[in-house]
Amino acid sequence: MNDILLKVTDLHAKVEDKEILRGIDLEIRPGEVHAIMGPNGSGKSTLSSVLAGNPAFTVTRGSAIFHGVDLLSLSPEDRSHEGLFLSFQYPVEIPGVSMVNFMRAAVNAKRKYFNEEPLGAGEFLKLMRQKRAIVELDNKLASRSVNEGFSGGEKKRNEIFQMAVLEPRLSILDETDSGLDIDALRIVAGGVNQLKTSQNATIVITHYQRLLDYIKPDFVHVLYKGRIVRTGGPELALELEEKGYDWIKEENR
Amino acid sequence: MSTAVDQYLDLYRVHAEALNAHSAGVLNSMRGEAAGALARAGRFPVRGDEGYEKTSVDEMFAPDFGVNVNRVNMPVDVGASFRCGVPNLSTLLAVVVNDRFVPTSTLLKNLPAGLTVCSLAQAAREMPSLVEKHYGKAAPLSDASVALNTMLAQDGVFIHVARGTRLEKAVQLVDIFHTSTPLLAPRRVLVVAEEDSHVAILKCDHTQGSEASCLSSEVVEIFAAEGARVEWYDIEESNDATSRRSQLFARQDRGSELHICSATLTNGVTRNDFHIDVTGEHASTRLSAMAIGSDRQHIDNSSMIRHAACHGRSNQLLKYVLDDDAGGAFEGSIEVCHGARFVEAYQSNRNMLASKGARMHAKPQLLIYNDDVKCSHGATTGQVDENALFYMRTRGIPEDEARRMLMQAFMVDVIDTISLEPLRDRLRHMVDRRFAGVKAGCSECASGCSE
Prior knowledge:
The complex is a heterodimer of chains A (253) and B (451). Chain A is an alpha/beta fold. Helices cover 37% and strands 28% of the residues of chain A. Chain A has helices spanning 44-52, 76-81, 99-113, 121-134, 139-142, 152-166, 182-195, 234-243, 246-251, and strands at residues 6-15, 18-28, 33-37, 57-66, 69-70, 84-87, 94-98, 145-146, 170-174, 201-205, 219-224, 227-232. Chain B has 13 helices and 19 strands.
């Protein structure tokens, strides 16, 4: 079982005094795509925040082992260096920090973590150019402040661009389809598919089956009241699309 | 009478003759009146006075500072070795050591036609009517700090830009404190920009060594005639033993433009006043300031833009980032006088507190005495944006670096108000270095004042 990329066991987490995750178990292997679905407030975004290390949440029980590393003991930046990437549902605007400086800081921080020299200016720009092409991100956006004044679609493309640059082992896409029109959705999903290899894995968090037409999941999990209450193949997403979440709620009263 | 005022009045009574002997007519002619005004004031403003809620000027002046009455020269000519490095910015450089004007040879050789940059005492001797017409005309003696400065100032800097002269190079004044005993330097700058002239002036404040405490008592008067454009940049990089009481008084005639940008990067206690009198129609004013405080630094900026004429436009942007136990204060007002219609005046003060011990006091004010104006003011004080911080950390940027990037980013719009591009780049670099914890002083500087 050494090829398990992420093993989450009995994960509990709370924000302030409210328990939101109440025993999550999840196993992800390289090359897999997992979809996590569930009604509003079921804990989907909390799960991604907790895995990424958002200090607003407190883990009260359980563990998350990421390719042999105790993920929960690491700072958010070290989780990133170790190969975890979170694509935000609402990417943050950072006025005054240019995309270029932001990405340079990110790339060089990772290189430093692995005792590598900072990337030279020419190589860095070349890397940016290559990765931008994957999501057709306009060069003009590179000179702007991070996400500032970006459209909804541009923000999401920017997330996938960053993912392409950082080459994570595990990407969590939190509601990446929200706020996207069909063309933007196709570009974003196309980018994710291009970046897929047999060595990395993806968690797709979504409300709707729509995104799963573009990013094909191997497993679909249904999260409800802080637990994974059902796991199936792609057909489970179709079933949810057809029947809604009421029957899940009914089963888990 | 406060002891602070008392000791300087005493000093004046004893040394009036020596003060006059080393100065010139126009400056000397005002000393008596200034001393009278200071005696009447009785004290400098103290904490809690209107407009001085967080800063006691009286305390700044209270220590037993010496004044270089007999113009004893510095043992070494620090001015000659000092080059404040602003890459790609070729300036006309002059140095003020304590309160003594020291021209550089490049300045004397390269002074373009239409520009005068010289010692104020020299100007008072050689062109008395021009100096008399402006000296002390914008700065009122009713203000105790102005009265003290006028009573003691023996020299200063005189900058005159003749009608229609548009200077390509900026004038740079480097103010250096260099003293082994506690010293008060009465600094005085007079800028006269005649009709349709353009001038950019960059002033940098430094303190060499860190043993003796020093106090800069500074009065700057700027006259922008019709259609003139004056840019005034003021960067303070002193140390924790330095106090600075700086007051800028500007008069703007019709159609003139005044851009002021002030940056306090390192200091002890600083109180800056910006009094801008917009007396001509269609004049525009931009005042921006940044203050970066850590340890126990104290930075207080006060602005008063008075619109006395129609169609004036003014824009104020002041930002503070305070860490550790630093204290900041801002009190700013816009006054639109009766009859000054169609004025547009805006003021914005934004502050970031990076620690639990840092304190900010903000008091924006609007005084509007007629209709047909557009004015706004606002002040906010907050912390580092936690969402942005987490976002950056998830991309692998270490927390302290992310925090530093956010603080620097916070100052970007102040830096962007600077028209001189090389200075903008330079200040961006200096701010970056400041947040990275590198001590004050230009690394390119040969004087080694940061050691």
